[in-house]
Amino acid sequence: RKEVEQDPGPFNVPEGATVAFNCTYSNSASQSFFWYRQDCRKEPKLLMSVYSSGNEDGRFTAQLNRASQYISLLIRDSKLSDSATYLCVAAGGSNYKLTFGKGTLLTVNP
Amino acid sequence: EAGVAQSPRYKIIEKRQSVAFWCNPISGHATLYWYQQILGQGPKLLIQFQNNGVVDDSQLPKDRFSAERLKGVDSTLKIQPAKLEDSAVYLCASSHISYEQYFGPGTRLTVT
Questions:
Q1: Which residues on chain B are in Cβ contact (under 8 Å) with A3?
Q2: Mean pLDDT of B94-108
Q3: pLDDT > 70 fraction of chain B, expressed in percent and rounded
Q4: What's phi and psi for B27, nearest 5 deg?
């Protein structure tokens, strides 16, 4: 079983749509969780951290359920510029190791 | 603030040849990471340095890959000899004291 598993995608949605990405992690000792964004042929960049209480950053909402070992990302009112691969990340251990999922490709269409 | 620098950006070599990648982290970042990202996959950690010491190299194929960070700043990653399955993007990242890692633009390696 992969340590971090994501929806395989790809997702194709029209502008203005709401889209949700799901992710599960297998290591119950993971301490922190993130969503990274990776544009085509570019490096990953941190989108947002994920907290148990849920957190929101503009049109983006992230949720964490430690009991189910489940993480989600919701994007509301999708923009063309949201087109990218979204990487789910679990982190833990004394050396702050990040474990990435395979990523889910999102294409927002006009 | 300057970001993580990597060179070269692209490299094409034949199998069994050697190749080296260079990384200069963000100034002041003690931790440096090398990742391998195969097409369609997420980045996979190869090696992590804290200053000039290795913290984690459990996923580094040590029969052909080596890395060093001699003065605790720049780092090089070497592959010798390369195999076809080494074709990937090699990403360098650095961090200060938090989980947030800043990635460089990567080196895209093609082994033919």
A1: none
A2: 89
A3: 97
A4: -55, 130
